Amino acid sequence: AAELVLASCKSWFSIDGSVHPMSSDKYNELKRSIDDMAMSSLRCIAFAYCTCELTMVPREDLDKWQLPDDNLTLLGMVGIKDPCRPGVRDAVQLCSAAGVKVRMVTGDNVETAKAIAFECGILNAKDVASETTIIEGKVFREMSETAREEVADKITVMGRSSPNDKLLLVQALKRKGHVVAVTGDGTNDAPALHEADIGLSMGISGTEVAKESSDIIILDDDFTSVVKVIFSNIKA
């Protein structure tokens, strides 16, 4: 996460090759840049480095030694656009019309997740008016089981979430009596895929563990194919 990298930087690298201390004004300027990129549905990546002398690390500790994550020097930041695939917005609207609520659970920061959800039609202006519609994974996981059940119905976007947060959301929704379908592609998604009433893994980007934990494999990794699966089962 770019904001976490920035928070670990004590200096920054200028375009002229000089290094300057990270003042509070510079930090706030860079933080605003990250926020601006996030609100434009850009995934921000920050690059930083630190200089370490391996000779200062005891030889017996080399195997377990890790690069310090503080006192870094910021090199720069970039924003990457990951646009919605064609047809996704229409597919989300079809789901909504059929009474199927689409929720986004992502590791992106909340502002990026919110902007992408707007683009895909998962969020609308009315949703944003409700604070519980958009939540951070850490906030959700630290709630009691009862509190999670109370807010689960309202959640549309969960940002900065871990695979375990996805599992907790699935469990809360199932306890509320919902039939839950989950998509995932990573090994860490396996518990949520297994817990869901219907687990859908990605055939191209999905790991073998994710595929083995799912009920259905989406061969083209396309959300519109997920919707086709749902409607095919409704017709059946």
CATH fold descriptor of the largest domain: Rossmann fold
Major sheet attributes: 4 strands, mixed
What pattern of helices and strands is seen along the backbone? HEEHEEHEHHEHHEHEHEHEH
Number of strands: 10
**CATH architecture classification name of the largest domain:** 3-Layer(aba) Sandwich
Q: CATH superfamily name of the largest domain?
A: HAD superfamily/HAD-like
**Shape type:** globular
Task: Chart the SSEs and their pairings.
Layout: H1 2-7, E1 9-13, E2 19-21, H2 24-39, E3 42-49, E4 72-81, H3 88-97, E5 104-105, H4 110-120, H5 125-128, E6 134-136, H6 137-141, H7 145-152, E7 157-159, H8 163-175, E8 181-184, H9 190-195, E9 198-202, H10 208-213, E10 216-218, H11 223-235
Parallel strand pairs: 1-4, 5-7, 6-7, 8-9, 9-10
Antiparallel strand pairs: 1-2, 3-4
Helix pairs in contact: 2-4, 7-8
Descriptors for this entry?
2 domains; 4-stranded mixed sheet; single chain; 42% helix; Rossmann fold; 236 residues; alpha/beta; Calcium-transporting ATPase, cytoplasmic domain N
How would you sum up this structure, described in words?
- This protein has 236 residues and is α/β, with parallel strands linked by helices.
- It has 2 domains: 1-81, Calcium-transporting ATPase, cytoplasmic domain N (3-Layer(aba) Sandwich), CATH 3.40.1110.10; 88-232, 3-Layer(aba) Sandwich (Rossmann fold).
- It is 42% helix and 19% strand.
- The chain is built from 11 helices and 10 strands.
- It has helices spanning 2-7, 24-39, 88-97, 110-120, 125-128, 137-141, 145-152, 163-175, 190-195, 208-213, 223-235, and strands at residues 9-13, 19-21, 42-49, 72-81, 104-105, 134-136, 157-159, 181-184, 198-202, 216-218.
- The strands form 3 sheets. It has a 4-stranded mixed beta sheet. It has a 3-stranded parallel beta sheet with strand order 5-7-6. Strands 8-9-10 form a 3-stranded parallel beta sheet.
- Helix 9 links the parallel strand 8 and strand 9.
- Helix 2 (24-39) runs parallel beside helix 4 (110-120) and helix 7 (145-152) packs across helix 8.
- The longest helix has 16 residues, at 24-39.
